[in-house]
Specification:
It is a single chain. The protein has 287 residues and is an alpha+beta fold. It has two domains: 165 residues, Sandwich (Jelly Rolls), CATH 2.60.120.280; 103 residues, Arc Repressor Mutant, subunit A (Orthogonal Bundle), CATH 1.10.10.60. It is built from twelve helices and eight strands. Strands 1, 2, 3, 4, 5, 6, 7 and 8 form an eight-stranded mixed sheet that branches. Helix 9 crosses helix 12. The longest helix is centred in the middle third of the chain and has 26 residues. This is Helix-turn-helix domain-containing protein. It comes from Chitinophaga hostae. InterPro entries: AraC-bd, Homeodomain-like_sf, HTH-like, HTH_AraC, RmlC-like_jellyroll, Tscrpt_reg_AraC-type_HTH.
């Protein structure tokens, strides 16, 4: 079971100074690293060697050698493993400093949009040396004080992200049934992230695409294997779990914050989707 005696889950700030960091996993340990915590920035964890498990948003994943986990701001995670490798952390402001960057640099947010569902990325042997070389280059440039170039680091990071995306696509091709890639699915994911706490009707999201709910469901089903309602419910349940496990908010407060008017209905919704009541889930987390 997850244990967090403080109840309020902390946000772990960027290590060291600045909006970018790269370091070996073994060098970054404190009282939070092996406890459930979350970050207010993007993070890439590359296990060059690993044995054990890694929890991301209440789901445990087995850790293997040459495996990458991508974490968005706000995702809860916990390490329970032997590990060697690297972590890279950066803010969106670091990567996109101006409009020109938006137009010329890779939009990494698509890489972190898990429109196929969340999962670690296994890195092929042919890509390992390239990623290692880029990590070495980023580390060398970052430590080239006081003459470190943000632009050089960003371009090394850009190359790292592109290689990671290619590995992610290879993983999906090898391990999952073929699904249609549609940019509208990525955009839908972003709309859900923005409005899940107040908009619970498929019609709202369909109107954003000038589509009928039925047609948007068809597109979403082809792209993810799930309907709009299923994706929406998944996101609401995830946020409910985060709040139940790591905040002092009452079930009623969580209910209202997530756009439900009736706490009893919210409790039924949560139990229908998880098999357990909100209060029982909270109690279970702190046994």
């Amino acid at each position: 079971m997850l244990v967090n005696k403080s109840l309020d889950i902390p946000y772990q700030q960027l290590p060291f100074d600045g909006q970018f960091n790269v370091a070996q996993l073994g060098m970054f340990r404190n009282e939070l690293t092996d406890q459930p915590h979350r970050h207010d920035h993007f993070q890439i964890i590359w296990f060059t060697k690993g044995k054990g498990r890694h929890m991301v948003d209440f789901v445990w994943y087995d850790v293997e050698d040459n495996m990458i986990f991508l974490l968005r701001p706000g995702q809860v995670h916990q390490l329970d493993c032997e590990r060697e490798g690297y972590f890279l952390s950066f803010t969106e402001q670091f990567y996109f400093t101006n409009k020109h960057d938006k137009e010329t640099l890779y939009d990494f947010t698509t890489l972190f949009d898990n429109w196929h569902g969340y999962g670690p990325i296994s890195v092929g042997s042919s890509t390992t040396a390239s990623l290692q070389g880029l990590v070495d280059l980023m580390s060398r440039e970052k430590n080239y004080a006081p003459n470190c170039s943000r632009g050089i680091v960003k371009h090394y990071l850009n190359a790292f992200l592109l290689l990671t995306e290619r590995e992610k696509k290879r993983n999906i091709t090898e391990t999952m049934m073929p699904l249609t890639h549609d940019a509208r699915v990525v955009h839908l994911r972003r709309l859900l992230e923005q409005h899940y706490h107040c908009e619970h009707q498929v019609a709202f999201y369909a109107n954003a695409f000038a589509l009928t709910p039925k047609r948007l469901n068809e597109i979403t089903k082809d792209g993810t294997g799930r309907t709009v309602t299923e994706l929406l419910h998944d996101r609401i349940v995830l946020e409910s779990k985060r709040n139940l496990a790591f905040s002092h908010k009452s079930v009623k407060e969580i209910c209202y914050e997530l756009g439900f008017e009736d706490p009893a209905y919210f409790s039924r919704f949560f139990k229908n989707n998880t098999g357990i009541s909100p209060q029982d889930f909270r109690d279970m987390m702190f046994k």
